[in-house]
Amino acid sequence: MPEGHTIHRLAADYRERFGGRPVRASSPQGKFADSAALLDGTVLTTTEAHGKHLFLGFPGEEWVHIHLGLFGKVNFGDIGADAPAPPATDTVRLRLANPESYVDLRGPTTCALVTDAEKQAIHERLGPDPLRADDTPEKAWRRISKSRTAIAALLMDQKIIAGVGNVYRAEVLFRHGIDPYRAGRDLTPGEWTAIWRDLVLLMREGVRLNRIDTVRPEHTPEAMGRPPRVDDHGGEVYVYRRANLPCHVCDTEIRTAELANRNLFWCPTCQAR
DNA sequence: AAAAGATGGTGAC
DNA sequence: TCACCCTCTTTTG
């Protein structure tokens, strides 16, 4: 679930359901209980996302800083006159509720009350985010263009670019025909600009649909005259988790390898050196 | 029933 | 580079 598009979508959904009015806050699991008690009954004033970090704003410049990590999940639900919120299970770190909605947060890496200064420090250590309107590719390029590290690793480094995860990095490299092991400094400025612009489009679409779709119209099964396919994570992708399956474009077997403890996927033909 | 794996990140060596 | 944290689903035996 959680790459940057998920977090930006969550920011919008939290704001829409809970923004501008008092919320009930609780932590059935207990780890956030003291902070939830402080927030209970106060107004959720705003929400914000930067990369994979979510911030829920409360009065007094206090923020709930949430990072889902690999396993974190958020579940929204409706409350009706004859349909109360279901009892929270004991893994719910934070439940917010008002008369119409509830939302449960489970398994986050981070759920902590932070000051505005602490929030600023988090922004400062993150790179530009393709989903933040004021962010630009130049700041990332300054580091990428000097780095001997593989572009596939740089794309996952949140200090360099924020919000890209294992799916988007594999897919955007495929879409641009770039070998994942090419050093950052061997990319051309034009290649980097194209990657950034593509990430902006792909991730915006990810926010809108709440899933990752990366296959171009000309490569859909219908366009290629092949049987329909469904990837098991909901979206349509070229290479992510398709190890040893034929490339949608050229039929070469998709390769996989471990890179910095994560699974990398690519097509050795479409992404030749 | 148990194990493995997952769209992430940190801190210790 | 490795151990570890958090939860849930899927795969394996």
CATH architecture of the largest domain: Orthogonal Bundle
By CATH, the topology of the largest domain is Helicase, Ruva Protein, domain 3
Radius of gyration: 20 Å
- Just give the CATH class of the largest domain: Mainly Alpha
Structural class: alpha+beta
Average pLDDT, rounded to a whole number, is 95
Folded structure, characterized:
The chain has helices at 4-18, 33-39, 116-125, 137-144, 151-154, 166-175, 189-209, 221-224, and strands spanning 24-26, 46-50, 53-58, 62-67, 73-78, 92-97, 101-106, 110-115, 255-259, 262-266. With 273 residues, it is α+β, with helices and mostly antiparallel strands. The chain has 2 domains: 4-125, N-terminal domain of MutM-like DNA repair proteins; 138-266, Orthogonal Bundle (Helicase, Ruva Protein, domain 3). The strands form 3 sheets. Strands 1-6-7-5 form a 4-stranded antiparallel sheet. A 4-stranded antiparallel sheet has the order 2-3-4-8, with helices on both faces. The protein is globular. The protein binds a DNA duplex (13 and 13 nucleotides) through residues 1-3, 6, 52, 67-73, 91, 93, 106-110, 156, 158, 165-168, 212, 232-233, 240-241, 260-263.
Looking at this protein, list some descriptive labels:
273 residues, alpha+beta, N-terminal domain of MutM-like DNA repair proteins, Helicase, Ruva Protein, domain 3, 2 domains, four-stranded antiparallel beta sheet, 8 helices, 29% helix, 20% strand, DNA-binding
